[in-house]
Structures are given as C-alpha cells and as structure tokens.
Amino acid sequence: MPVLPREFYDRPTLDVARDLLGKTLVRMTPAGGTAVRIVETEAYVGENDKACHASRGMTERNRVMFGEPGHAYVYFIYGMYHCLNLVTERDGFPAAVLIRAGQPICGMPEMSKRRKTTKPMQMASGPGKLCMAMGIDRTLNGVDLCQKGPLYVEDGYTPSDIVACPRIGVDYAGEHKDLPWRFYIKGNVCVSKTAPGDS
User: Fold this and answer.
1) Is 129 inside a domain boundary?
2) What single string gives the DSSP state of each residue in 88-153?
3) Which terminus of the chain, N or C, has fewer Cβ atoms within 10 Å?
4) Considering the chain, what is the average pLDDT of its residues?
5) Residue 118, by phi and psi: left (phi above 0), alpha (psi -120 to 50) or beta?
C-alpha cells in the first residue's frame, strides 16, 4: 500500500481522524518492523479547543503541532507513557490526531517482548500501550510521516461502521469535554474503551 501523502493530513482534523481508521501505522527499527491497523483516534483542534495542548499557545513541547502537516508529535505523560499524534491542517494552525489504539498485523513477537503479553487484543489497546508495543518515543517527535522511514502510515481500508463519541480523560476541558471527537471502528476488539450504549 502507498504511504499517505501530505495532502491527506492537510485537511480538517475531524476528517483526518475518521479517515485514519483502517489505515496502517508502520514502525521500522533495527530489531525489525511492526505494524498496526489504526482502530481508534481522537481529534484535537486549535487553540480554542481546551483539551488541546495548544490551548495555551506554543511551547517547546508542542511546537511540532504548529508546523507542517504530516509530522509526528510525540509527548510523554505521567512520567511513564508516550503518546503519538499526527499533525494536521495548515502550517501554523495547531491541530493533531491522537492514535488511541491499533490492531496488530505485523511484528507480533517484537511487540510481545516490549509489552510482555501475547494477547493481540491488549497489545496496543490504548495510546501508551501502542507506543510501547511499537517502540515509539520522543526520538520520533517531528518525524516526517509522508515518506518511508522509521515511522509512517500506509493506506488501508475504509471501515463501514464508525462510532463518534467524547474524548477520554479531558474532563478539565470545560464545554469541550463532551465534543464527539473520538472515533473508533465499531466492533473492533482492540479499541481501548467502547462508548456507553455501544455493544
């Protein structure tokens, strides 16, 4: 499958977040390659989005978000987890899609060693788990995703049924905490958490 071009990311973030579902995230290391099908995403859109890292303006930490679309924004939280975001929209407008969960499709032995589990459903069923399984850390912050290298996204398939619901862990975001900006493939067992009422 071809690598997603920059034009894919240079669009409204909500569209990119939905369209990333079913695409393939690839990580290449000296130990070998790993890949997951993206099954869950969250959109973070601009300085007016109180859940977005850019809501208080540009900092050294979030500088990549303000740059060219199609780059990786990787940050460290709780002193133990990395999270991968894909920068979207025009250069200068801070927006990104958080990759919340993936379904392993390649490199299971390597992912199992990193995650210390052999269960595919639990391998990358959360943003921190995904980064751990694929060996994604701050060294990849700013990497260009639009060419084959250490980290990139390939085209995949288009899911037939997508759930839209509020983002997770953004209770601090006031009126923005309930925006339905989390998207996942309905029925996929690798999703981190299903929405209330979704069976």
Assistant:
1) yes
2) -SSTTS-EEEEEEEEEEEE-HHHHHHHHT---HHHHSSSHHHHHHHHT--GGGTT-BTTSSSSEEE
3) C
4) 91
5) alpha
Give the side-chain half-sphere CA count within 13 A for 41.
23
Summarize pLDDT for 169-199 with one digit per residue, the tens.
776 766 777 789 999 999 999 999 998 877 6
Q: Which domain holds residue 23?
A: 6-185
Q: What pLDDT is attached to residue 54? A: 63
Which CATH number does the domain housing residue 173 bear?
3.10.300.10
pTM for this structure? Answer: 0.94
pLDDT band per the 50, 70, 90 thresholds, residue 83: very high
